[in-house]
Design brief:
Mean pLDDT: 92
Low-confidence stretches: none
Radius of gyration: 16 Å
Amino acid sequence: MNVAVFGGSFNPPHVAHVLACALVLAVEDVDRVLVVPAFQHPFAKALAPYEDRVAMCLAAFADLPRVDVSRVEEQLGGESRTLRTLEHLAAGHPDWRMRLVVGADILAEAPKWFGFEAITKMAPLIVLGRAGVEAAGAGPALLPEVSSTKVRDAIARGAWGEVESLVPRRVLAHVRSKRLYGAPA
């Protein structure tokens, strides 16, 4: 089985994440996309609680068949490391041929990743182009320029109009109900 692994903070998941999964399923030779929310960010970025990010991912990807949300990094515990996650998935699923889905913006961070060369051997990259990001090896910029950082900032300011077309409505409902990212009451 060909499985595309799509990891990230998903803090919160937004429409570019959803479109990335739909794009991979449409144009790549994959049977499933496995969305893997980071349990603990390796670069010590502050994240919403893991349970909330998993719930938001389940809500964001609910309408996409062949997309599953995995809690594998919670099972592994500690800092999320892509190499460790891929090794664990490969050991548990020897019938999988894995690919790793990354946005073009991630290529600049590759030197910071632990074991990046081993990662790309175990799960060759699917690099998705993103508006506003120039990167060698990336496909055409089919994904919109959306960032979770900008989404969080808008939510904290109560600027819901800025994010209503950038974040799946069920994700926004969760953010509002849990008052995540400094969302006003």
